[in-house]
Amino acid sequence: MGRAVTVATCALNQWALDFEGNLERIFRSIDIAKSKGARYRLGPELEICGYGCSDHYYESDTLLHSFQVLEKLLESPATQDIICDVGMPVLHRNVRYNCRVIFLNKKILLIRPKMSLANAGNYRELRWFTPWSKARHVEEYFLPSIIQEVTGQETVPFGDAVLATKDTCLGAEICEELWAPNSPHIEMGLDGVEIFTNSSGSHHVLRKAHARVDLVNSATAKNGGIYILANQKGCDGDRLYYDGCAMISMNGETIAQGSQFSLDDVEVLVATLDLEDVRSYRAEISSRNLAASKVNPYPRVKVNFALSCPDDVAVPTCMPIQWRHHSPEEEISLGPACWLWDYLRRSKQAGFLLPLSGGIDSSATACIVYSMCHQVCLAVKNGNADVLADARRIVNDETYIPEDPQEFCKRVFTTCYMASENSSQDTCNRAKLLAEQIGSYHINLNIDAAVKAVVGIFSVVTGQTPRFSVYGGSSRESLALQNVQARIRMVLAYLFAQLTLWARGVPGGLLVLGSANVDESLRGYLTKYDCSSADINPIGGISKTDLKSFIQYCIENFQLTALRSIMSAPPTAELEPLVDGQVAQTDEADMGMTYAELSIYGKLRKIAKAGPYSMFCKLINMWKEICTPREVASKVKHFFRMYSVNRHKMTTLTPSYHAENYSPDDNRFDLRPFLYNTSWSWQFRCIDKQASAL
């Protein structure tokens, strides 16, 4: 009897509705798996159509094209003699399900629908799919004619079942089911399933990877078994970056680890494991065996195929490894960089333009683009032909080889310092020096003429000339003058993005990058339709605190010494007049709160689900050493007042890389009104009453 099974899992950079590209990547993963001796291949969730199809799942075209891709897979010699497990939407009795289609040698073995749908945060699966609620129940699924012609099958099993091969038993989970409190692997393991599979569409969040790894390892630590996880990777068309981390675990220990961030479109992990290790591990867990004797059995689909070879005693098996996690600073350096590369190559643009102010946020954004250039050069050095082809197309040079990150940065990245009479020489020098060190094509320009022209039109029409508050104007006048500067910078950013390469005799246009961080968006400390309005924003989901740590990381790892002075300077918008040539305006003074406080407010508001009163109650304990109850009350009320006054700005927020679970992204993650009663009279009265009592 065979005991050593060889299995493969993968991370694929699929793209929503890119059926041709998705099919090619699936084929490549199968070829790699077979070349390494695998007898079973697992792919990511909904890999045939791409996970992020959203409302396209409603369209019959998506179902049709998915089956057409499945037809190509079934009839191909490449899928012979290996069990292939692929993901696609399936319509069964007029209900759409998120399914795994498992097939072998032109025969579909089982269509397994997802039972627990992801429906929190960024996920909206219940909008498009229905969970399969019939546990351990199988029905007949009538195949479309194009599939019948290939398989010779009229119907196949559809439902909650497991596969019984000649040497072992496999059971499938799909993404969210691993995270559910009643995960199927628990009951499946008690019923003798030895290999659990999980096809995921799990996106990156800072500091999240360890949670996924811990869940996989714990799934087999208590119950024994082999756990195989596949995941989507890359940007498949929206704000999320799917971060790979395909893995294979056995008896609570990691056996194989895939990369979390890379520019490889196809990554395949293969491991050979001894089934007897699972059986002996389970043998001494008496509580597990007692529960197993009473378990309700799963329907079994018999498969006349083995994952092992008859004479495999001498076959070497894989040993456990120690999982290496990235630091948060490494995650910021790599995740948004890979997301930017996917967006750049798939949008078919020629590069990026960034308004570089010399502050922390725009400098961090520039560093992420520089990190992307590093990743591109490294991938090409390691022989990645896809990245080389994309780089050549982007720079419009069929012989080009990106070898030096600074030289590549000069070709694909334009930075622009837009000075005004309120800008200091210090920020100008900082921006220029950083641009020199990363290699970007840098532009210096002055916006005063445009500002005067716009304000002049207003003065001609109204007969009034607004003034800054330092010159006797009202706060409304001062704010309007600041906003004019900010909005003119946005207009100029798009003008230069469209025509800079044309002026240099180079074809193509540039994507405009925004650089507002998650805390400023939460507070609304930005001008609507200013430079925060861009095509995409790689730092829009990252806190100021984490960005400062990332800047320090770049100083140490990229030797960008220009960042030292940027780190030490107080954050400022530089929209108000200078005082004796020096900046008088600072962000934290303008906001009436610190960035550290903003991060706390954001986490309590979103993650802890705290309204004004609950936030006050939590903070009087958290801050009891530094604030009185009345001071806490004042801070909480000021935050909610400013948050609600500015919430409307989130409706036009630039699409941002999702990195934090307290993001205020209004698109689909943080669903709130944008017209509030900003007095919060009832809530604030409750706070005041409690503060007085304390």
From TrEMBL:
Keywords: ATP-binding, Ligase, NAD, Nucleotide-binding. Residues 5-275 form the CN hydrolase domain. One of its GO terms (cellular component) is cytosol. GO terms for molecular function: ATP binding; glutaminase activity; NAD+ synthase (glutamine-hydrolyzing) activity. CDD domains: GAT_Gln-NAD-synth (cd07570), NAD_synthase (cd00553). Pathway: Cofactor biosynthesis; NAD(+) biosynthesis; NAD(+) from deamido-NAD(+) (L-Gln route): step 1/1. GO terms for biological process: 'de novo' NAD+ biosynthetic process from L-tryptophan. PROSITE patterns: CN_HYDROLASE (PS50263). Homohexamer. NCBIfam families: nadE. This is Glutamine-dependent NAD(+) synthetase. It comes from Nicator chloris.
